[in-house]
TrEMBL record:
Residues 360-369 have a biased composition (Basic and acidic residues). It comes from Callithrix jacchus (White-tufted-ear marmoset). One of its GO terms (cellular component) is endoplasmic reticulum membrane. Keywords: Membrane, Protein transport, Translocation, Transmembrane, Transmembrane helix, Transport. This is Translocating chain-associated membrane protein. It comes from the Eukaryota.
Length: 369
């Protein structure tokens, strides 16, 4: 389904402004190209690689897991094609939310340009984090990870995933890859691009690491915790943009943020410790999914600790900047009040002096007389 942004003027075809205004339509046409490939017998096999999950293995009924899935999946090169197609889907969904939801709210609230950019960013992330939390929690419940937490580090076989688990990771990778072209489509400021690139890159790094090392359940649990905290952050931002009286909600989010970081560290250390400790009879092999090697222990734990420290440091610097800005605003307000009071005093003093001068004749006239 094509999406067309309403504009006051029609830019030249294939110009930069034309691409920015109609990028959802262009991406929709590319997606329809893969869908039409299913119609023809010669291209159906190639189109299926982009549309459906690949690298599946049929599991006999005697070896089925408790989830009851008939097929298990592993990762491979064909996953790149699937990620590419769902990246196009993410771009279309992003444009739909922007045009039919966020733009209408912006016109009604009449935000400034700076607030409008922040509102759009928080709105897009809030929708993504909300559905990801619900989806991830559903997978954890359906695979009995919440009722039996030991499945997080003793899931077997190590090198296999269920359909819903693999589709979740494919969707996550597609979403975060789509964020790179969105920097261009949304006309992100140059000074904000490095921050956004780091933010996107960190998510891709950790999601890809959990996917390739078959730490699927651990990665899913940590993602749900992380997305829940980020969801609260952006929801507080949305309420704050609508009315500044909700600033107390931001302080409440800071407490939840710190608790979320602590829980994430504890879960990472405990899960990775039990998973990588494993059985001494198993042969460590990172290729088959048994990453019980010293390098994997150091990489996973250091990566988890580093990202938590980085996010916490960003929070501290953000709050310091806000505190400095608020203090500067208060100081400037106090100076304005003092200057106004001093002006009133001087005006009152000048009025008294002029009235006295009117009653008494000037000295020069006395000398002349």
């Amino acid at each position: 389904m094509g999406l067309r942004k309403k504009g006051t003027r029609n830019p030249p075809v294939l110009s930069q402004e034309f691409i920015l205004q109609n990028h959802a339509d262009i991406v929709s046409c590319v997606g329809m190209f893969f869908l039409l490939g299913l119609v023809f017998e010669g291209t159906a096999e190639a189109s299926i690689v982009f549309l459906t999950l690949q690298h599946s293995v049929a599991v006999p009924a005697a070896e089925e897991q408790a989830t009851g899935s008939k097929s298990l999946y592993y990762y491979g090169v064909k996953d790149l094609a699937t990620v590419f197609f769902y990246m196009l889907v993410a771009i279309i969904i992003h444009a739909t939310i922007q045009e039919y939801v966020l733009d209408k709210i912006n016109r009604r609230m009449q935000f400034t340009k700076a607030k409008q950019n922040k509102f759009n960013e928080s709105g897009q992330f809030s929708v993504f984090y909300f559905f990801s939390c619900i989806w991830g929690t559903f997978i954890l419940i359906s695979e009995n990870c919440l009722s039996d937490p030991t499945l997080i580090w003793r899931a077997h076989p190590h090198s296999m995933m269920t359909f819903q688990m693999k589709f979740f990771y494919i969707s996550q990778l597609a979403y975060w890859f789509h964020a790179f072209p969105e920097l261009y489509f949304q006309k992100t400021k140059k000074q904000d691009i490095p921050r956004q690139v780091v933010y996107i890159g960190l998510h891709l790094f950790h999601i890809t690491g959990a996917y390739l090392l078959y730490l699927n359940h651990l990665g899913l649990l940590l993602l749900v915790l992380h997305y829940f905290v980020e969801l609260l952050s952006h929801m507080c931002g949305l309420f704050y943009f609508s009315d500044e009286k909700y600033q107390k909600g931001i302080s409440l989010w800071a407490i939840v943020f710190i608790l979320g970081r602590l829980v994430t560290l504890i879960v990472s250390v405990v899960t990775v410790g039990f998973h990588l400790a494993g059985s001494q009879n198993q042969n460590p092999d990172a290729i088959t999914g048994n990453v019980n090697v010293l390098a994997a222990k150091i990489a996973v734990l250091s990566s988890s600790c580093t990202i938590q420290a980085y996010i916490t440091w960003n929070l501290i610097t953000l709050w310091l900047q806000r505190w400095i800005e608020d203090s500067n605003i208060q100081v400037s307000c106090m100076k304005k009040k003092r200057s106004r009071s001093s002006k009133k005093r001087t005006e009152n003093g000048v009025g008294v002096e002029t009235s006295n001068r009117v009653d008494c004749p000037p000295k020069r006239k006395e000398k002349s007389s």
